[in-house]
Write a structure and sequence with these properties.
The protein has 445 residues and is mostly beta strands. It has three domains: 157 residues, Glucose Permease (Domain IIA) (Distorted Sandwich); 93 residues, Immunoglobulin-like (Sandwich), CATH 2.60.40.10; 113 residues, Sandwich (Immunoglobulin-like), CATH 2.60.40. It is built from four helices and 31 strands. Strands 3, 5, 6, 7, 8, 10 and 13 form a seven-stranded antiparallel sheet that branches. Strands 22, 23, 27, 28 and 31 form a five-stranded mixed sheet that branches. The longest helix is centred in the first third of the chain and has 26 residues. It is globular. It binds zinc ion. Zinc ion (ZN) binds next to loops. This is M23ase beta-sheet core domain-containing protein.
Length: 445
C-alpha cells in the first residue's frame, strides 16, 4: 500500500514536471530562425538606423521601410523570429513589441525585443494580438497601415531591435518608454534639441542596427543559424571575402576539406544566376581545395548568395548556406601621397600611394583613375595627367593601391614648383565621381 502510494506520487510528480517542461517549451520559443519582417524589397531604406531627425530631435532607433500603396494593398508584417508578444496597442498606428529568447551562447545576449510601428489597427483590417501570445515567423502579426494617422509621413514599417528582455516603465534618461522610435529626450516637459548630448549615444547602444551594417542583426543571425547546422557534416567548408576580378567581376573563394569524393560547388547570386565548379576526389586526399565561384558583375546586388555543395555520385546535398553580402558602400579615399623628384625644371614620379576604404562586402570599380597636376601657363597643357590604368578595383575593407605604372613618368614645367599640387581623380560611367587632394612631396635630385 505504502509502496503503491509512493509510486503514484512519483508518477504524479513526473507528469507535473513533464507538463511544466512541455508548457514552457510552448511558451518560450527559442529564436533560432530569422527573417526580414516584410516580403519584397527591404532597401532602399526611407530612414536608416542611427540618423539624426530634426523633427523628432533624436536619433532614429530603427529602420523605415516604405510601402507607399499600403492604402490599397495588404503588406503583411512578420515577426523577425519566433517570440512572445509583450506589447500590442495603438501608439503611432498599431505598435507591437515581441520578446525573443536567443539560442544559448548567442553573442548578442539572451534576449532581444523587436519593435514594429505603423501597422493597421485591429478593427481597421489589422490583427489583434494578445499579451503573452506566441508568434512565429510564418504567420503575420499585422499589416502596414495606409492611414495617415498611423504614420504621419508616408506608409511604412518602422522596425527596431532593442537589446535585452522586455522592460516596462519609463526610461528616466528620456522621460519616455523604452521602445520609442527616436532617442528624443524630454526633461521637465521640454524636448532637448542638442544632438551632441551623450545620453543620445548611450540610448543608441541599447539597440542593434537591424540590417545591412556589415551585416546587421538580422543578416548575421541568418548566417549564424545556417552555420550551426554544419557541425553535423564531415566537410569543413569556408568562404572568404569576395575578391575583385577584371574590370567589373567578383569571385567568392570557397575552401573545402573532408573525405575524398567528387564534389560540385554551386553559388547562386540574388538574381538567381548560378556558377558551378568541381573538385575531383583525388585532389581532396589529405588536402583542402579552394575554388573561386563567380558572384556576378557590377552593379552587384546586395542580398543572400546561396552556396550549395553536392557529392556527384550519388547526387546529394551535403552543405547549404546563405551568406549575405552587402553592396559596395561608403567608398572613400582615406589617403594619397605622391613623390616627385625635381631635376632643374623637370619632375619625375618616384612614388605613389592611394588608400581606399569600402564599407560593403562586394568590390567597387573606378574607371580611368588618374593623378592631375595643374600647370598654368604651360605651353602644351594646362594640366599634367598621369593615368593609373583603365580601372582600380576597391575590395571590401581597407585597400592600398600603389601604382608602379607611372613611376618614372615625367613632365617639365617652367613655373614655380611651389604652385604644384596633385589631385586624384576617379571616374564612374564617364563622370568624375571622386577627387582627393594628394600629399605632394618634392625631392631634389
Ligand atoms: Zn522610423
Amino acid at each position: 500500500m505504502f509502496k503503491k502510494e509512493k509510486y503514484l506520487l512519483v508518477i504524479t510528480l513526473l507528469v507535473t514536471f513533464l507538463s511544466i517542461i512541455i508548457v514552457n517549451a510552448q511558451e518560450v520559443p527559442i529564436a533560432n530562425s530569422f527573417r526580414f519582417p516584410l516580403e519584397g524589397d527591404w532597401s532602399p531604406l526611407w530612414q536608416d538606423f542611427g540618423k539624426w531627425n530634426n523633427q523628432w530631435n533624436g536619433y532614429h532607433l530603427g529602420e523605415d521601410v516604405g510601402r507607399e500603396d499600403a492604402d490599397t494593398k495588404n503588406y503583411a508584417v512578420y515577426p523577425m523570429a519566433d517570440g512572445i508578444v509583450k506589447f500590442a496597442d495603438i501608439v503611432l498606428g498599431y505598435t507591437v513589441i515581441i520578446e525573443h529568447k536567443l539560442p544559448a551562447s548567442d553573442p548578442d545576449g539572451d534576449y532581444v525585443c523587436s519593435v514594429y510601428y505603423h501597422m493597421k489597427r485591429p478593427g481597421e483590417g489589422g490583427i489583434k494580438l494578445t499579451l503573452g501570445e506566441v508568434v512565429s515567423t510564418d504567420s503575420p502579426i499585422g499589416y502596414v497601415s495606409g492611414k495617415r494617422k498611423d504614420y504621419k509621413s508616408l506608409p511604412h514599417l518602422h522596425f527596431g531591435i532593442r537589446k535585452g528582455p522586455y522592460k516596462s516603465g519609463k526610461d528616466p534618461r528620456t522621460g519616455f518608454w523604452y521602445y520609442p522610435g527616436y532617442t528624443t529626450i524630454k526633461i521637465n516637459n521640454e524636448v532637448q534639441k542638442n544632438p551632441d548630448d551623450p545620453t543620445h549615444e548611450q540610448i543608441l547602444t541599447d539597440w542593434f542596427n537591424p540590417t545591412a551594417d556589415r551585416p546587421g542583426f538580422i543578416e548575421s543571425h541568418i548566417i549564424q543559424i545556417e552555420q550551426s547546422t554544419i557541425g553535423a557534416s564531415l566537410y569543413h567548408i569556408e568562404c572568404s571575402k569576395p575578391i575583385a576580378y577584371g574590370e567589373k567581376m567578383a569571385y567568392l573563394p570557397v575552401s573545402v576539406s573532408g573525405p575524398a569524393d567528387d564534389l560540385a560547388l554551386m553559388l547562386t547570386n540574388p538574381e538567381g544566376k548560378m556558377n558551378i565548379k568541381f573538385i575531383p576526389k583525388t585532389s581532396l586526399i589529405d588536402n583542402f581545395e579552394t575554388r573561386y565561384l563567380w558572384m556576378g558583375e557590377e552593379p552587384f546586388s546586395e542580398g543572400p548568395y546561396t552556396l550549395t555543395v553536392k557529392t556527384v555520385t550519388p547526387e546529394k546535398v551535403i552543405y547549404k548556406r546563405e551568406v549575405w553580402f552587402t553592396a559596395p558602400k561608403n567608398i572613400q579615399i582615406t589617403g594619397g601621397e605622391i613623390t616627385l623628384a625635381r631635376k632643374s625644371n623637370c619632375y619625375y614620379v618616384r612614388d605613389l600611394v592611394l588608400k581606399f576604404k569600402n564599407d560593403g562586402d562586394l568590390p567597387f570599380f573606378f574607371e580611368r583613375p588618374q593623378i592631375v597636376l595643374p600647370t598654368p601657363g604651360h605651353p602644351l597643357a594646362e594640366e599634367q595627367i598621369f593615368s593609373l590604368g583603365r580601372f582600380i578595383a576597391v575590395p571590401s575593407g581597407e585597400f592600398k593601391f600603389d601604382s608602379r605604372r607611372i613611376l618614372g613618368d615625367w613632365f617639365c614645367y617652367a613655373g614655380s614648383s611651389k604652385i604644384l599640387n596633385a589631385t586624384a581623380r576617379l571616374y564612374k560611367n564617364g563622370k568624375i565621381i571622386l577627387t582627393f587632394p594628394m600629399k605632394l612631396t618634392m625631392i631634389e635630385e
